[in-house]
Amino acid sequence: MKTSTGNQISFANAFADLYLDKETGEFALDYRRQEVTIYLNHTQYQALVLLVQQSVEDEQFMEYLSWERDPLQCEDTQMFEVCGPDHIVCMSCVPNCERVKLTFDLGVAIDLSFADYQGLAGLIKEAQADLEWRRELLKWNMADNGNDFATGSQD
Q1: What interhelical angle do 42-56 and 131-143 show, nearest 10?
Q2: Distance CA 19, CA 17 (A)
Q3: Where do the domains of the chain lie, and which CATH numbers do they carry?
Q4: Angle at CA of residue 78, ends 75 and 81, nearest 5°
Q5: Cα dihedral 97, 103, 107, 109 sign
Q6: CB count, 10 Å around CB of 128?
Q7: Is 121 exposed, middle or buried (0-12, 13-18, 19+ CB in 10 A)?
Q8: Do the Cβ atoms of 124 and 89 come closer than 8 Å?
Q9: CB 9 within 8 A of CB 128
Q10: Which residues share a beta bridge with 99?
Q11: What is the mean pLDDT of the chain?
């Protein structure tokens, strides 16, 4: 579900809420079941988007995440790890525990169930496809003085 006001755009589903403050360009990610809110800047948000996109492109990981393969039948030693640019956010998953751990460079780590992670991935996909959201991201990309991870360029 999308809501938009003069100062904020937000997307929500049963697992999380994602907010963009139009004035400051800051993002808030509210994990509903964990009752944790993480505040991200533009660069951290872009790194999270890239990490989620990379992780869901891994066919074997997606088979466990969607229960096409039973995670409880997975080897104890199997692990999936993906790190975003400059380790701004990293993901690790041990399928037989049915958990995904996201670790942010701002000293926060959050442990998600498979359903929570799928919900987060769906929320990010929905936001990234929204024209108004993309317009705001583009505005902040042009104003950003740091790395633009979406295009791989540096100012």
Answers
A1: 120
A2: 7
A3: 2-143 (2.30.31.10)
A4: 160
A5: negative
A6: 14
A7: buried
A8: no
A9: no
A10: 94, 113
A11: 87
Local structure of 18: helix, strand or coil: strand
Q: Which two tokens stand for residue 105?
A: 């460079």
Query: What is the pLDDT, as a whole number, of residue 10?
Result: 95
- List pLDDT tens digits, range 8-64: 999 999 999 999 999 888 999 999 888 889 999 988 999 999 999 999 999 999 999
For β-strands 16-21 and 108-113, DSSP reports them as: unpaired
Query: Which distant-in-sequence residues (6+ apart) come within 8 Å of 106 by Cβ?
Result: 38, 40, 44
| Nearest residue to 30 via CA among 15, 8, 49 | 15
- DSSP 8-state class, residue 79: -
CB 92 within 8 A of CB 30: no
**Closest of 84, 119, 120 to residue 104, by C-alpha:** 84
pTM over 0.70: yes
Q: What is the CA radius of gyration of the chain?
A: 16
Selection from 132, 72, 122, 127 nearest residue 99 by Cα: 72
Q: How far apart are CA 17 and CA 100, in angstroms?
A: 18
What φ, ψ does residue 14 adopt, rounded to 5°?
-70, -15
